[in-house]
Amino acid sequence: MKTISVSSFQGASLSGAMDKHPKAFGDLYVAMVKAGETGGVLDNVLLRLADNIEKEVELRRKVKSAMTYPVVVVLLVNVPAKVVLGVWFVLQFFTNPNEGVAWVAHVGGFAFGVLVGLLLRGFGDRTPPAPVPYPDPWSGDYRRFGGRY
Q1: Among 28, 16, 34, 22, which Cα is nearest to 52's?
Q2: pTM of the model
Q3: 3-state DSSP: the chain helix, strand, coil percent, rounded to 5?
Q4: CA-CA distance, 96 to 88, in Å (whole number)?
Q5: Which residue, 30, 63, 104, 129, is most buried by CB atoms nearer than 10 A?
Q6: Which of the four pLDDT bands, split at 50, 70 and 90, describes residue 140?
C-alpha cells in the first residue's frame, strides 16, 4: 500500500500503481479504477469495489460456516462408526476363528471386488464410440455417400 501511495503522490495514476501489484489487485479491480479515472467517477467506483469486497468476504464466511457441519458429521459420526465396526469385526474373527473364517472370506472377497471395480472404472477410454457413417434416409443428404445407400 505504501508503494501505491508513493506512486500516486509522484503523479502516477491509481490504476497504474495498482497494476504493478497483480497479486493484491485483480484485473477487474484495476480496469474498474481505470474506467473510474477516465470517466471522472472514481469515488463511485471505489465505493462499489468496497461493497464488492465486503460481499466477497461475507460469502467466504458463509461458505466456511456451511462446510463446517459436514466436516463435523464426518469426523464425529462416520469415523467413530468405522472404528467401532472395525474393532467388532476383528473381535468376531479372533473370538471364534473356526466359525468366522467363511464369513470373513466372503466379506473380504466382496470388498476386494468392489475395490477392483472402482479402480478399473477409472481407466479406459471414456469417449463414446464414433458413429457409424450410414446415410439417414430422412435427412436427404445422399451426396456424401455417392448418391446411393
Answers
A1: 28
A2: 0.48
A3: 75, 0, 25
A4: 12
A5: 30
A6: low
